[in-house]
């Protein structure tokens, strides 16, 4: 790490010394030895979750092996020493606008609510999280061995052996009683649990639920962990691929990491399997431990995965490897530094092969990858390449289009064949349309969009909704690089929609290099709904439907768009609930023209007052308030907007309006465009029936 440069105005420090640096839940890494065999881990965890709501994140060890990363990261800034911060230090750091890099282990962070400096929350942004994962079985073996060979005191190690036994891991993992006593499933899901965070969905323990529920809950935990890796954690490195990980970090955040020596002996050593095991065995001999650790064989590893002992950690570990591979492939960071020469030695190729790549402007970036795949023989071979082939080596949509265009140029006119192909007139018409509506799967509301002056055709398929920020072109380029299907830009004011421009004074080269990702602008009123959608239903799908407008209205022109629209748009349905007599009651409803996804189920709570006009509150009978529940409101007294706003402030998930007059027609309720930007709850309007069965229930 001798080439790492100090950054002026940077501070670095570790969590144990400065546990006031970041707010979040904390849990304990070790249980007292007298609790072994007496308390379940979840009891201890529940206690620490309960008392730690206002305690700051706490570190429980060094980063990496033997403090390797700690030593590297500590060189980046003027290291802060001492125990914790005082108000004077925080004020000074804020006034000097110092950048800070904290390192250390943390347990169960609440990824969505992390802040720097509890005393000055508003002044500090959410910290950027970088973490590493390790091969689950190697990590399990190291942890299993450590508590017997190197942890704490000799008395503690003896207690562990007394209560938990001293079988080798290879023996214990296939002994049901030993595996249960040592809680190996929990030990081998700890990385997934950390990446999941501090939420209730991350609190899963196999011996307190039946097997079926455990598998289902663990699946949800892994899903949240993967989502955090993609959205709330900037970068997840892989210990076994440390050189590639550090190279990617250096490329991703050069301001912080430029100059980290990835060829240092400590980094090379970090990727070697068995490093900690051999060290633990040496300690074990000194401690007169009877049995030597036996590393699982390939067959045993497969059985461990198959039987689910390490399933959760393997899921997040492989996801981290996938994300790292994608980052290296998409950004080219694998070839940016001398220490990252992971490709085969270059060899001489035919001129025709290089001509194709040079013509596309991709020779420098992809020549080695083409060589490794044997795509260098003749133009005939190149013409057989598929989009999937090019995606596999990291090409984005824009690069693939350039590649195919260059290949096409190499085909002599005599070889070109005009294939009889029926032109789909409706598809061609769809491509020409610039206006349409954006529909979110299961949402009550939809929004107009206008296609940008640049970018490709609106895709026929749906896409997942995520967020970003920067200029139009930067947004498009970043979205395209990340493999996004569509870029949706929210307008900054309530003005009319327009076709987003590429920018002023673009050079011919810039015009030729414009992003090809489909890009659209939607109304500002969509922002509130889309923002809450990210929080409430982060995996929601959306689709863009181009529409042709006339005096009779705007309608889709393509067949699949019509079916998608009827599937995605939550216009109405049936409301089922238990009546006062215990029987199921069914009522038809129509949904409002605004609001996020309509939930499949929910607890009904009466508003107080029932019309939700003025300062509404949950009724006295409602236990636990209105948060996340379905608010029942009655018609009249104030506007629909006022009713929805009142229960929305109380945290309701949806509103249902009752007390309609019998014989009235069901119409979809709407609000003004300006009001659309303030509310996000869907409002259901059931068909009227006598005696208000919803209120009575």
Automatic annotation (TrEMBL):
SUPFAM superfamilies: PA domain. It is found in: Golgi apparatus membrane. The keyword Protease does not apply. PANTHER family: HEPARAN SULFATE 2-O-SULFOTRANSFERASE, URONYL 2-SULFOTRANSFERASE. The lineage of its organism: Eukaryota, Sar, Stramenopiles, Ochrophyta, Bolidophyceae. Keywords: Glycoprotein, Golgi apparatus, Membrane, Signal-anchor, Transferase, Transmembrane, Transmembrane helix. One of its GO terms (molecular function) is sulfotransferase activity. Its main location: Golgi. It is a single-pass type II membrane protein. GO terms for cellular component: Golgi membrane. This is PA domain-containing protein. InterPro entries: Heparan_SO4_2-O-STrfase, P-loop_NTPase, PA_dom_sf, PA_domain. Residues 602-669 form the PA domain.
